């Protein structure tokens, strides 16, 4: 506790003595002082003067001007790049939407093609089944013609059979 009181007392003494020593640093300018801020080189200084500062400050001023010009140039480049970027994004969006349209159209065409292929396959199957039916009908027609011919041959066979019986065997050779 005593240590804290001692440190506080020491700090108070130091602050008091610092205030008295800083008293000589602050003073009001004299009425005939050239560097009071109202007259002299500071009030008359412009952008292109050294203002009695010396070469280091002049170098800083020229570097500052150069940096400002670079900043303006880079800002213009940034604006141009952003505008170009926005244009490219717009083009990309337009191309993307046209790509989506083409994909939808292609899917629709593929669905129509698949439908037409399915119909074609159904028609081929129907043609094949009709061809089979036609072949069966032709077969039945031929079978019926064969049966008619056999009947007509059978009808003719008894008369031919008697003629054959009357003929000598082995063509008349003995």
What features would you describe in this structure?
With 174 residues, the protein is an all-alpha fold. The protein has a domain of 68 residues. Helices cover 78% and strands 0% of the residues. It has three helices and no strands.
Give the SSE layout.
Layout lengths: L1 H20 L19 H4 L10 H112 L8
What is this structure, in a nutshell?
By secondary structure, the protein is an all-alpha fold.
Helix content: over 70%
The shape is rod-shaped
Number of strands: 0
What does the average pLDDT come to?
Answer: 78
- How much of the residues is beta strand, in percent? under 5%
Measured between the Cα atoms of the first and last residue, the distance is 169 Å
Please tally the helical runs, counting DSSP H or I stretches of 4 or more residues.
3
Based on secondary structure, the structural category is mainly alpha
For the biggest sheet, the summary is:
none
Radius of gyration: 61 Å
String of helices and strands: HHH
Low-confidence stretches: none
Please describe the structure with a list of short key phrases separated by commas or semicolons.
3 helices; rod-shaped; mainly alpha; 174 residues; 0% strand
